[in-house]
Amino acid sequence: MHIQVSAGLPEVAPTDGIEVIERKGLGHPDSLADLLAEAFSQTYSLYGLEVFGHVPNHWVDKTALVGARSEVGFGGYSVESGIQARLIGKITRAVGDQPIPVDELFRDTLHELLPAATGAPAIASHVEPVVENTAGIAADHPAAFYRPSQGEDLADTDDLRANDTVVCSAYAPATALQRLAIGLENFAAGPQLGGDLPIGRDVKVMLVRTGACVDITMCLPVHPERVSSHHEYSEVVSEARRRMDAYAAAHAAKLDADWRLDIAVNTKDQQGGAYLAPWGTSLGKGDCGLVGRGNRANGVIAADRGSSGEAIAGKNPLHHAGKLYTLAAERISHRIGRPNHTVLVARNGDRLDTPSFVGVRLGERASSAEQRHIADVVEGEMAALPRLSKWVLTTPVIDRFRDPNLLLEA
User: Fold this and answer.
1) Residue 59, helix vs strand vs coil
2) Where are the alpha helices (DSSP H) in 279-344?
3) What is the C-alpha to C-alpha distance for residues 404 and 191, in angstroms, rounded to an integer?
4) By the 8 A CB rule, do 336 and 371 touch?
5) Total domains in the fold of the chain
6) Which tens digits make up the pLDDT trace of 165-214?
7) What's the rounded Cα separation, in Å, for the pair 380 and 153?
8) How far lies 97's CA from each of 6, 41, 105, in Å?
9) Where in the sequence is the domain holding 135, given as residue range(s)?
10) Measuring CA to CA, how many Å separate 112 from each of 39, 40, 116, 302, 384?
11) Per-residue pLDDT for 59 more than 60?
12) Cα 131 to the center of its chain, rounded Å
């Protein structure tokens, strides 16, 4: 493989510069779509391993959630039409004459995942699962790729070759602002707020740092059936903000960040509104979620930093280059041990463990010893792709969402 190490990386998050970080919360519709696609891929893959000894081919990275039509007000809500959960992609539905219970696996995944992610068990009774399977046969794969006649045919899917031409990238280290964004969302979507306040998990965090000043904007949903008036709602939001202020200050101190923090919560309320959401998610009042619009593999959306455009959720965990290279790039970038931007390129049909191009950009020219270290890191991570696939198959998706660093510890 060709590994190019170059200089010229701008300073990472200079103290006098500008940095913008966004994180969508656990109950955000886009996060839920990612989680659902990935949880189904896990369930489906493990079923295939148990029954056939192999993972049947599948891609469900176009999964979508269509929000409920509801009437929402202080004191309660009514659902006129529920949520539609659409599992969209290519799926192997049978091995020979033995069907794979795709619809049942999706329904079970949906009814387990949505209540766990939102913390609202009632949401499960308002979801309609729809499976839209587009798998067909074409000249670039044998017919058995999606229509295997026997279990042995599935062994072809174990051939570790890239399924697509992709470019995936990552950067390291994580900045203090990035870590604060993840901490704030986890705090807001956890028992520190939702334990005794009627706060849901469709949280969004936006942080803008200019020098040492950090403006934090947070959206915190409130369960409508648990506040009877705008006054009660305002009291809940005020208490939530007080706790968020205390947490942000303590967390910034832990990060040794000498920042001036300013937190704004539910800014649309200034026009007399109120962020009321059935089941604690805007999915309950008509918003929709799509795979690929949520947080990146590092847990945030950093528009001013290099990151992969791949939507990794729901992709085949064995040989989808966009998925594995996005995760491998994260691990490589952090293992290099100094600020860098790493790029991996795969060509359709090439061996996955041999990228067509690896680019690592550092702040300064690398010595011969540093170049050898980088080469060792890249080669080690490429050789460990099967272990990375196993981690994807076995690590709970909500755990991965809450702590993106689990990937680095795999």
Assistant:
1) strand
2) 321-335
3) 20
4) no
5) 3
6) 999 999 999 999 999 999 999 999 999 998 999 999 999 999 999 999 99
7) 30
8) 54, 22, 18
9) 29-140
10) 10, 11, 6, 30, 31
11) yes
12) 21
